[in-house]
Design a protein that fits this description.
mainly alpha; about 85% helix
Length: about 70
């Protein structure tokens, strides 16, 4: 079963929001345990920022295309 672009954009945006919340929770927990700047955490932060950025941008881009298609 193939997903349409509207469903894909929602999934990408939902993934972006959930990963952003997860990143915030991890940073808060690391701050509480004073391990905010450990190498492992920094690598994780960087990878999560990339995921949030990519999925957010892709979701918004697909959403724009869906809205343009609907206006034609």
């Amino acid at each position: 079963m193939e997903m349409n672009d509207k469903s894909k954009s929602r999934l990408y945006l939902l993934t972006s929001m959930i990963c952003l919340i997860w990143l915030g929770q991890v940073i808060f927990k690391a701050w509480q345990t004073s391990s905010l700047w450990s190498i492992a955490n920094l690598v994780f932060y960087a990878s999560m920022i990339i995921v949030v950025g990519y999925t957010g941008y892709s979701g918004l881009d697909m959403r724009k295309k869906v809205l343009k298609k609907g206006q034609k």
